[in-house]
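Quick illustration, no need to memorize.
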Amino acid sequence: MTEPPIALITGASAGLGAAFARALAARGCDLILVARRAERLENLAQEVMHQTGLKAEPLCADLTRPEDLHRVEERIRRLPHLDYLINNAGFGVRGLFADSDLERQTAMANLHMLATMRLTRVALPGMLDRRRGNIINVSSLSAFITLPGSIHYSATKAYLNTFSEGLAREVSCLGIRVQALCPGFTLTEFHATPAYVSMRAYERIPRFFWDPPEKVVEASLRHLPHGPVVFVPFFKNQVLAFGARLGLTGLFYRIVIGWFRRRPPM
């Protein structure tokens, strides 16, 4: 009997990570769910196992901590095979860089860049031996749009795009598919965290721009086999990314977002 594919998902306790977990379980994957919140992981694992009969292993880890990152690396090494690596864990730090908390900025860089690089490096040898595997690095539209107050967040996401593009050039001819997923505004808990709640993004940014995480994940997996390495889902976000490349980011925010900020909350 053929063993089911295995997917390891970081940041799996909510948002895009949980959506990836449910979508990959629906595709027949056993899951390893990595995040800091043990109770949420356990609940998601029980949900998946109950609904699909597949395995779902919660692995509580804070990937900004070297010892926890090492535990996840060792778990990957012990797997008989790994078919999907979803590097999704992340958080943002708001505020002018000169005034920001250096420890938080360092932790964000470690999570977005170092953890992604290390887990990918550990996963690749097995994938290359089997000439089969999928790596999705969850980036952001912010990789193209650099604004005061989140410059380091944008820089770490730009790294994920560059890393993914280079990696794809090395391994795509060997059966490994790589994607840097760059969603726009997504209905997750990200903007409800302390760093972002004061922005009142859910009230100020028009609903048209917000996408459910399930829709983002469905688009990501659908385009993974033959889509671009740096994948921006949905036309509205592609327009924003294109405008950013032309240097129109500031104009967009002044005219569109600025206008909606003057509107009363919906």
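Confidence is low (pLDDT under 50) at residues 259-266.
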